[in-house]
Amino acid sequence: MESAPTLRLHPRPRCRCGARRGAQRGVALMEVLVSILIFAFGLIGLLGLEATAINFSVDSEDRSRAALFASEIASTMWTNNSVTIPSATMTTWQTNIANPATETGLPGGTLAITPTAGTTNSADITITWVPKTDKTNANLGTTRTLTTRVILP
């Protein structure tokens, strides 16, 4: 009887990369953590840009309101055909400009109408206000000014 061929089992060859495999453990985790850190810095930057955009939007809205007030005052001057405004009308304008509780008022708004020197039919309308932040209502420290010159024919 013939004996079955014996299988000769060879020991598995040793891989020389085994030492490197142990040193590579956790590298993927470190890569993920670094990428999350970079992503977080990007998000913080975007939030800062959003806050700046909101401040510019509020400032633009205030400038637009001031321009609207100046335009309405100039229209009143054209209608009356005089650069001098009656005191009752002037008081009403000053009250409306200084009242930020309404949607049309400006925070810390003031109105000044000064005749241009040397002419009788020209005046400067100056509106000033102090911008405030939305949540704290703290002064930002800078005063904004809009000046319009009206020249009547």
Give the quaternary arrangement of the chains.
Answer: single chain
- The mean pLDDT is 81
Given the C-alpha coordinates, what overall shape results?
A: rod-shaped
Radius of gyration: 37 Å
Counted up, domains total: 1
Q: Indicate the percent of residues in helices.
A: 40-55%
Instruction: List how many beta strands DSSP finds.
Output: 3
Query: What's the story with the biggest beta sheet?
Result: 3 strands, antiparallel
The number of helical runs is: 3
Strand order of the largest sheet: 1-2-3
Strand content: 5-15%
Order of helices and strands: HHHEEE
Helix and strand content put the structural class at alpha+beta
In short:
The chain has 153 residues and is an alpha+beta fold. It contains three helices and three strands; from the N terminus they run αααβββ.
